[in-house]
Amino acid sequence: MARFPAYALASVALVATSHAFAQSTVWRCLDDGRAHYTNIKKETEGKSCTVVSREVSVVSALPPAPAVAPVSTRPADFPRVDPATQRARDDTRRRILEEELSVEEKSLAAARAKLAEQESMRGGDERNYQKVLDRLHPFQEDVERHERNVSAIRKEIAGLR
User: Fold this and answer.
1) Are 90 and 161 spatial neighbours (Cβ–Cβ below 8 Å)?
2) Nearest-angstrom CA–CA distance, 85 and 39
3) Which residues have CB under 8 Å from 57's CB, separation 6+?
């Protein structure tokens, strides 16, 4: 027989318990002329109660969501750009992004070189390794920032048509 972990047995017990509650009997009791509904048998003792249902149905009290108009609708007089103009704009955008990528990659290489230079140095006042980490931290942040920029530009270039 396979052994189940404790969490698996607990989840099975929870599902079985919640299912049992969903199948409980519901009573309608009259208290001083007011209707009171309950699924607890002890609350019905000594009161005039009748069984309403043997199964409980849960219905949302929220109204249905309104229908949303499609986003792609545009007015008839909306200005259109001819394909040649749009292609020229896309090419210009791609060229600008590739130039930015080139500059950012050069900055990343320079930041990595500065970090490597700082990592190779060790000052006499840095007996505590935390001082080394504190000194290197701005250089590491600079490298990480340039890596994020390169990644973002590449992602934007990949998204072009």
Assistant:
1) yes
2) 70
3) none
Main-chain dihedrals φ then ψ at residue 55, nearest 5 degrees: -125, 140
Q: How far apart are the first and last CA of the chain?
A: 58
Rounded distance, CA 150 to CA 161, Å? 19
pLDDT at 65: 76
Domain ranges of the chain: 6-53, 83-158
In tens, the pLDDT along 101-127 reads: 999 999 999 999 999 998 888 776 767
**Which residues is 74 bridged to in the sheet?**
none
Q: pLDDT tens digit string along 36-64?
A: 788 888 888 888 888 877 665 666 677 77
Measure the CA–CA gap between 71 and 53, rounded to whole angstroms. Answer: 45
**Look-up: residue for tokens 């699924």?**
39
Report the SS3 class of residue 121. coil
> Do 27 and 38 touch, CB atoms closer than 8 A?
yes
Pairing state between β 34-38 and 26-31: antiparallel
The overall pTM is greater than 0.70? no
Structure tokens at 119: 């990592």
Distance in angstroms (rounded) separating the CA atoms of residues 85 and 66: 39
